[in-house]
Amino acid sequence: MTRKTPLYERHVELGGKVVDFAGYKLPVQYAGIIEEHRAVRNEVGIFDVSHMGEFEFRGPQALEAVQKLIANNAAKLKINQVLYTPMCYPDGGVVDDLLVYRLDEDRFLFVVNAANLEKDWEWVQENTKEFDAEIENQSPQTGQIALQGPKAQELLQKVYDLDLSQIKFFWLEKEGKIAGHKCIVSRTGYTGEDGFEIYAPNDAILDIFDAIWVAGKDSNLQPCGLGARDTLRFEAGLPLYGHELSPEINPLEARMSFFVDLEKDDFIGREALLEVKEKGLDRRIAGIEMKDKGIPRQGYPVEVEGKEVGFVTSGTYSPTLEKNLGIIMVKKEFSQAGSNLDIRIRKRLLQAEVVKLPFYKRR
Amino acid sequence: MYPEELKYTDDHEWVRVENGKAYVGVTHYAQEQLGDVVFVELPDIGEEFEMGDSFGVVESVKTVSDLFMPLSGKVVEINEDLEDSPEAVNEDPYGEGWIIAIELSDESQLDQLMDSEAYQKTLE
Description:
The complex is a heterodimer of chains A (363) and B (124).
Chain A (H helix, E strand, L loop, with lengths): L2 E2 L3 H6 L3 E5 L2 E6 L3 H10 L2 E4 L4 E6 L3 H8 L12 E7 L5 E11 L2 E6 L4 H10 L7 E4 L4 E7 L3 H6 L14 E2 L3 E2 L2 E2 L1 E3 L8 E7 H14 L6 E3 L1 H10 L34 H10 L3 E8 L10 E4 L2 E12 L4 E9 L8 E6 L2 E8 L8
Parallel strand pairs in A: 1-3, 4-16
Antiparallel strand pairs in A: 2-3, 4-10, 5-8, 5-9, 6-7, 7-8, 10-15, 11-14, 12-13, 14-15, 17-20, 17-22, 18-19, 18-21, 19-20, 21-22
Helix pairs in contact in A: 2-7
Chain B lengths: L6 E2 L4 E6 L2 E6 L1 H7 L2 E5 L6 E2 L4 E7 L3 E5 L4 E6 L9 H4 L8 E5 L11 H7 L2
Antiparallel strand pairs in B: 1-2, 2-3, 3-9, 4-6, 5-8, 6-7, 8-9
């Protein structure tokens, strides 16, 4: 059964091409992926991300429960601060990657991938039984909008009643209102641009969307679909679960050691990750640029002198750099910038060069 | 959207017979479904294929789709301009966005293709 998000009617009215994604009917594109992508890089775009999952942790041991589950350190979070983290299996493989919002001393919000929602919910419940904490799956009743791009703040400020410049990168505000509705606003996103993510109950999110949409008439606000969301995150080198992260890929291989706190007392997967760190990595994620004409896609083999040394995890035409780029998982000795590799694309073997990640960084 | 003088296939390709050659491209519907085309993989001139064989690939930002031979024959021309301007497939699918031209090995196969009206019915 595919569900509609609270903004479904808007997608149809605005000409979105709706597809089934992770159990939801969501627009893959409106004007075209490249046009939407450029709108976010240059001005501002709006995304319906209501399919994302939200779990709230409350109670005296909410922090302990969170800490056991995640590899990053939530104890370092001040109230209203946000953290990006992997959540691991005991063997170090990744259950999901998520944002943790510290809403209060003993109140946290997990924002998880829609495709992993059920699995995550089971995992979270199963592994927190010993704690005095209540965990609630708020996903069905919670809508989410992402407003992304260099003009996001200027636009959102027109409808938001508190000063957005006070919300720093990876911080949130939960007291402000849009269209009369209280909502959580964080300076976060999945595009590599400045921008905000807005959370509110389903009925409020429609009013919030409409208020931003009306205010955006003067700012060329572009509705954006899942397609542009993927190309934007790709250029910014942000991992996508099922591509750069999976139960078979640990976060150290995925270049996420910055988000893994091995100094932390304990968390699920810590021992395995410590062992990986001591032994050293066999393989890791790297970026490639195609030298020959062709587009690397997930699953294509990576070869050196006829031997398979890795595989492509994501790849596309980059609308900003106007090049065919890929992210690969490759044996460590071939992961340095400048290394030459071959990508097997159908019957052909095409040349590529390892380049630094991210492909794109905002000025 | 679907010129009368062309023939169409179930795979959303069109064929235009001109001076004994058949030019081949994808339809307006196909380019719309694909979205922004960013790469076209062409066959080599001289390659021979049977009707229904995959002769190339068209890639949009998100998707990779095979191109199928609408008729049996030998590739006699390829649209090399698509290397630098694959977006022509979106912008002018029946003109600048043509993909290959083939020398037919069996002209009677043309009878198996649809006219514009029949093709449009399949899209309803």
